[in-house]
């Protein structure tokens, strides 16, 4: 037979401080460990007419749903504690709950203060670095500007110097060209005058060729070329050589490995291959001359041989003209004679081929 059991009421329902606090709305939930009778009354039993009115907040939550852990207090002993002690305990807990957010807020303020201080110091450091960098950049800009001005000045001076040098060089070249043109003109005029005279004398001689050195043409050649070219230090032997050249009786031979006995001429030992018989100078003599049918030989230096050979070539050519062996016009013949005269002049000055 089913019977509905009524929940047991709290024996200290009228005097329990927890019950009174919850009924007044001061405490919204009861700690764990209350007596089963109180728990059941607080959770399920409706309030009676003799009980205080329920608060607006409604019934307290189930004890199992309360996350706060309370120490087990055993059976309800509310009749031993006064309501004033319970209210004091609740006030302390509320004060501690209020101190927690205040302390957290204070910590946040401290962190914000420290962060602001660090930010200010970092900002000051960055400003100082920026100022220093700007100062260095300004100094570098000034140095770059100074170097740029120096470079522009050097480039300008270089351009001016280059222009001046080019102008001076062109001026010197122009003056040299003018002088050269004037000299060539004067030389051409002088050569034209001289050539005209010489060519006239040559044409007169060519009409009746002769070896008489009293004619104007040969007299000029003797005076300007033949005489100076055959004028050696040893005057006596020089006269003999000139006569032999005019008579075409002079012979020039290379010196053999076995030399012939030496002879003397004008108190000079001409038999030595190290002394020139015409100049008297110590020279290596690679040739010797013989005059006419004489058996005597005279050793001569390369310079003396070149002078004698130049004169002999000139006389050989005019003999060919005299004998009619040269069949050319007057102008080519004249220029060949001028070339032979040039060779005599060069030999007289000491210019001769090395094989001489």
Automatic annotation (TrEMBL):
GO terms for biological process: exocytosis. The keyword Coiled coil applies. Residues 123-193 form a coiled coil. Keywords: Coiled coil. Residues 39-103 are annotated as: Disordered. Pfam families: RAB3A-like_C, Sec2p. GO terms for molecular function: guanyl-nucleotide exchange factor activity. Residues 121-189 form the GDP/GTP exchange factor Sec2 N-terminal domain. InterPro entries: RAB3IL/RAB3IP/Sec2, Sec2_N. It comes from the Eukaryota. PANTHER family: GUANINE NUCLEOTIDE EXCHANGE FACTOR FOR RAB-3A, RABIN3-RELATED. Belongs to the SEC2 family. This is RAB3A interacting protein like 1. It comes from Saimiri boliviensis boliviensis (Bolivian squirrel monkey). The gene is RAB3IL1.
